[in-house]
Design goal:
This protein is α+β, with helices and mostly antiparallel strands and about 130 residues long. It has one domain: 60s Ribosomal Protein L30, Chain: A (2-Layer Sandwich). The protein is built from 2 helices and 8 strands. The strands form 2 sheets. A 6-stranded mixed sheet has the order 1-2-3-8-6-7, with helices on one face. Strand 6, helix 2 and strand 7 form a beta-alpha-beta unit. Helix 1 packs parallel to helix 2. The longest helix has 19 residues. It is globular, with a radius of gyration of 13 Å.
């Protein structure tokens, strides 16, 4: 059985999907882009500011499911430009650290929703 997770503390979906789905002991999030949930607008700035907002959005979805960043098993990071990897990686490390960091894949894509520079999705235990 699946349970839909949505919270006002993360951006509302911009299409026919939910912020996350809990199935059994796992949580699967949709990709989060750097939209400020308070304004519904993309955050100003570059990949650092966008990465921070994406991680804050993911934290909010995790909290709504009863999980935390410590429960994350795997992430997938999508970058509009792999040249932004080092900056995104610094922000990522600020949120996850190294000792308990999840498995991760990072790929460059041709484009992201709303012109975002970064999008991240994750799988966590609940």
């Amino acid at each position: 059985m699946k349970h839909i997770i949505n919270t006002e503390n993360a951006p509302a979906p911009i299409g026919p999907y939910n912020q996350a789905v809990k199935s059994g002991h796992l949580l699967y999030t949709s990709g989060q882009i750097p939209i400020d949930p308070a304004t519904g607008e993309m955050v100003a700035g570059g990949v650092r500011e966008q990465s921070i907002q994406v991680m804050e959005n993911l934290k909010s979805v995790l909290e709504a499911s009863g999980s935390t960043l410590d429960d994350v098993i795997k992430t997938t990071v999508f970058l509009a430009d792999m040249a932004d990897f080092a900056v995104m990686n610094t922000v990522y490390a600020e949120f996850f650290g190294e000792e308990n960091a999840p498995a991760r894949s990072t790929v460059q894509v041709a484009g992201l929703p709303k012109g975002s520079l970064v999008e991240i999705e994750l799988v966590a235990k609940v």
